[in-house]
Amino acid sequence: MKRTYLFVILCPIALALLVGIATNQESWTEINAATGATRTRTTKALLFAKPWVERSTWVSERAAQLGINTNSDWQLLGHHKQTWGIATRGCGTAPASFHLRSSDQTVLSTGEQEAFVRSFVKADEETRERLIRELADAS
């Protein structure tokens, strides 16, 4: 009798825990402040982590061609977690490089693109904002 009661009590609890773990999902989005590239990673059921999926910009591609290391400038852009049907979201502040996605590099010659990328990657946030405004004005 006691075992039956124990089974009746523990079985729903164990099932609820399994459902909670199985429905747990978490995703992170980061942005590279130096290039505007973004990357996203998702983890499901606390165990199954997918690799980072990166979306490059023309600045990140050009920086890679020039051999400029930009791997240390990743920062949180967004975080989403869902567990037990409850969703939580968090976000960071988008850097100036976020606007590179809508910029048009074709207004710059190849030499100007190289100079832009070199100065943009090494600049501080205020200078990056100014460089993006100048690029937008040139379009």
Largest sheet: number of strands, sense, barrel closure: 6 strands, antiparallel
Q: On the 0-100 scale, what is the average pLDDT?
A: 84
Overall structural class, as computed from helix and strand content, comes to alpha+beta
Strand content: 25-35%
Could you give the count of β-strands?
6
Task: Write the H/E string, N to C.
Answer: HEEEEHEEHH
Distance between the termini: 80 Å
Radius of gyration, whole Å: 23 Å
Shape: rod-shaped
- Which oligomeric state applies? single chain
Key features of this structure:
single chain; 139 residues; alpha+beta; six-stranded antiparallel sheet; 4 helices; 6 strands; 41% helix; 26% strand; rod-shaped
Could you give a short description of this structure?
With 139 residues, the chain is an alpha+beta fold.
Task: Characterize the structure shown.
This protein has helices spanning 2-22, 58-66, 110-122, 125-138; strands at residues 25-32, 38-44, 48-49, 53-55, 74-83, 86-91. With 139 residues, it is α+β, with helices and mostly antiparallel strands. It has one domain. It is 41% helix and 26% strand. Strands 1, 2, 3, 4, 5 and 6 form a six-stranded antiparallel sheet that branches. A hairpin with a 5-residue loop joins β1 (25-32) and β2. The protein is rod-shaped. The longest helix has 21 residues, at 2-22.
